[in-house]
Specification:
The protein is an alpha/beta fold. It has two domains: 183 residues, Rossmann fold (3-Layer(aba) Sandwich), CATH 3.40.50; 179 residues, 3-Layer(aba) Sandwich (Rossmann fold). Helices cover 43% and strands 16% of the residues. The protein has 15 helices and 13 strands. The chain has a seven-stranded parallel beta sheet, sandwiched between helices. Strands 10-9-8-11-12-13 form a six-stranded parallel beta sheet, sandwiched between helices. Helix 8 packs across helix 13, helix 11 packs across helix 14 and helix 13 packs across helix 14. The radius of gyration is 21 Å and the shape is elongated. The relative contact order is 0.11.
Length: 380
């Protein structure tokens, strides 16, 4: 990427290292070819990414903090740890770490402190009340502690500026994606179809996302019922945490609509590029998002998308797919039907759409762009 030889110690402070978008970006930055030494402090545990970071040679420290019973001494512990590490830059991730890590870094004398925010909506129902309270405190401190507040989405930045964050400190760095990892791969698609006993001619709709009310699975199921009642034949693959037949609420919704033979619940999977190559259309039914990674991951694999109008989804998709209002199963169904009809009746146009989907990610959301912007931010 042509960086100057500047050796920096970057300390990342994050609430946890589970399976999430911010955690994934942190991992990619630590694994990038940069002249930096990375150290990570997790306020809770090592989660999914702790061992992966250590495999890359990144030192990971954990505090095992209980968010339900916060200990004021954690600030004191953090200050001591930060001083012993002596970082050039502290990059915090998500509200609790922005607050605790920001205050501790400030008192430890760190000159460059950067906050990172991946949430777009601050409303009750989308976040816990305690998290909303922490965000409000951060808004008051945003003019004092951070050098910059980094958002992954324009919609998230706008929402937080309205909530009182210092607009002069707020910047956007979109998430970036490996176009080598997420690429068009017909071989992996065929292998997964064989694994699931799906025919090569089966039309497959997919959605990758954990089970949570804001992810809109029930809206998707209602939309799929409409599609099915219109006589459109399809199979559906759902992937994510708690996406299995042991999830009684999800299983009941599918069984009530006679979808047990048509919908595959694959739970958490590591082969997301293969999933995105296997499906013909990715549908995002969420009621709130900031910058939905799964849209870029699908598009990078040449898979067109239908999405609700949440966060930066419309900006991500552009003219390569379909955008519908959130919480509207009927509109979601109509766009799914339009997409599948185009695939069936106009394969030439569909193939152009697939090419354009990947090209848009390449032009706007390449991982090297993201890494370069973070590095420039840390070194300016």
């Amino acid at each position: 990427m042509g960086f100057m030889t500047v050796h920096l110690t970057i300390l990342h402070i994050i609430i946890g290292l589970g399976d999430g978008g911010a955690e994934n970006v942190l991992y990619r930055l630590c694994n990038a070819d940069l002249p930096c030494r990375h150290v990570v402090i997790s306020l809770t545990d090592e989660g999914k990414y702790g061992p992966l970071l250590e495999e890359c040679g990144v030192k990971v420290l954990t505090l095992h903090l209980s968010l339900k019973k916060p200990n004021p001494l954690v600030i004191y512990r953090l200050v001591k740890m930060i001083r012993s590490i002596s970082p050039d830059v502290v990059q915090t991730w998500m509200y609790h770490a922005n607050l605790l890590g920001g205050i501790a870094s400030y008192f430890a004398g760190v000159g460059k402190i950067f906050w990172n925010i991946h949430h777009s909506s601050l409303g009750v129902g989308h976040l816990k009340r305690t998290t909303i309270m922490v965000s409000k405190i951060c808004a008051k401190l945003s003019c004092v502690i951070p050098s910059s507040v980094i958002f992954c989405a324009r919609s998230a930045l706008n929402e937080h500026v309205k909530a009182g964050y210092d607009k002069n400190k707020c910047i956007i760095i979109h998430n970036g994606y490996s176009l080598t990892k997420f690429s068009i791969d017909t071989c992996s698609a065929m292998n997964l179809r064989n694994e699931l006993y799906l025919d090569k001619d089966d039309i497959i709709i997919g959605f990758v996302g954990r089970y949570h009310p804001v992810k809109g699975h029930l809206y998707l199921i209602e939309a799929l019922e409409i599609v099915k009642n219109r006589g459109v034949s399809f199979k559906c693959i759902l992937v994510g945490n708690k996406i299995n037949w042991k999830n009684q609420k999800l299983a009941k919704s599918l069984e009530e609509k006679s979808f047990k033979d048509d919908v595959f619940l694959l739970d958490k999977r590591l082969d997301i590029p293969a999933i995105m190559n296997t499906i013909d259309l990715h549908v995002l039914p969420s009621t709130t998002e900031a910058f939905p990674n799964v849209l870029c991951e699908a598009m990078a694999c040449g898979t067109p998308c239908v999405s609700t109008d949440v966060g930066d989804a419309a900006f991500i998709i552009g003219k390569t797919g379909w955008i519908v209002p959130s919480k509207n199963s009927g509109a979601l169904a109509e766009s799914i039907i339009l997409a599948l009809l185009e695939k069936k009746k106009n394969p030439y146009k569909w193939n152009i759409r697939k090419i354009q989907s990947r090209q848009r990610v390449k032009e706007l959301f390449d991982m090297d762009f993201m890494i370069s912007k973070y590095y420039k931010c840390w070194t300016k």
